[in-house]
């Protein structure tokens, strides 16, 4: 398995999972042929990417709404 970073130099963070979630993560990682760590990193990256896309879309909607309001005010 290829790593995008050196595991010995990577930041480390302890995560406390609710009862039973570790087994769920292990099964999902095994099904995707990756480590639990890799699966969790992938999930976090996807979540953060989704948040960025949502903010970009929200910004575009606000801008479009402002432009529409300006056009409606023009004679």
UniProtKB/TrEMBL annotation:
Keywords of the record: DNA-binding
InterPro entries per the UniProt record, alphabetical: Arc_DNA-bd_dom (IPR005569), Arc_rbn_hlx_hlx (IPR013321), Ribbon_hlx_hlx (IPR010985)
GO molecular function, a single term: DNA binding
Pfam families from the UniProt entry: Arc
Every Arc-like DNA binding domain range: 7-46
Protein name: Arc family DNA-binding protein
Source organism (scientific name): Pseudomonas promysalinigenes
């Amino acid at each position: 398995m290829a790593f995008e970073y050196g595991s010995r130099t990577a930041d480390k963070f302890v995560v406390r999972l609710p009862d039973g979630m570790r087994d769920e993560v292990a099964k999902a990682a095994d099904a995707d042929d990756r480590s639990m760590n890799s699966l969790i990193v992938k999930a976090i990256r996807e979540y953060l990417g989704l948040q960025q896309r949502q903010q970009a879309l929200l910004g575009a909607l606000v801008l479009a709404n402002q432009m529409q309001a300006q056009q409606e005010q023009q004679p």
